[in-house]
Amino acid sequence: METSSREREELRASRIKERPSWYSPLGHLLAPTAFGLGISALGVLLLEDVRPWEWLTIPGFWIFSNFIEWHAHRDLLHTRSKRAPILYEGHTLNHHMIFPAHDMAVRERGEWREVLLPPLAVVMLVGLLVPVFAALWFAGLPNVACFYMITGALYVLSYEWLHLSYHLHPKSWVGRRALIRFLRRHHSVHHDPKLMQRWNMNVTVPLWDWVRGTVADKDAAEEALRPR
Ligand SMILES: [Zn+2]
Ligand SMILES: [Zn+2]
After folding, report:
1. Is 76 in contact with 128 (CB distance < 8 Å)?
2. How far is the CA of 140 from the centre of ligand 1 (A)?
């Protein structure tokens, strides 16, 4: 699925043309962030007399979220399905084609639209946490239910903020942070069309890639990042 730079520029130009005049990049980032933080704050307010073992569910839920991220990225965003073609089109056909591994940075804030999830998707992802939250709550584990909701909502936000950070200019203040440089490399390699269907599927922290052995090897990574 290699795309010539001319095709890429045409796609980029057409996406800019389609962008509504009212589009606000900061609103696109901050409105879902406020929603996620609000849900998390509500979860914190509902906590009562937390027992030591209940705190330990937080790392467990984080690992579960990392596992879900790996699968959702591979099985929904990189797999064409009749039920939700928009996921494959938005991610594999637009996001990956606009940003090849060697040219990952947005050129203007308006291109955040090609990186961030649609705001409604963030609301839906947080909404997907509700059934397990309710099951834990009614099973008599309200604190664990709240930790599940808080961890899940903050995980979705961390996905958004980190992913956007990788697509900022590498020389920007955010782009120069050591943590972002390390995580960006992992995600940039995933942006190689030859590797994207199988390798480096985690976008936040590549834990599940290590567990599943889907970290691209050094030679493939270096080839993917070679300037063209
Ligand atoms: Zn990306
Ligand atoms: Zn991808």
Report:
1. no
2. 40
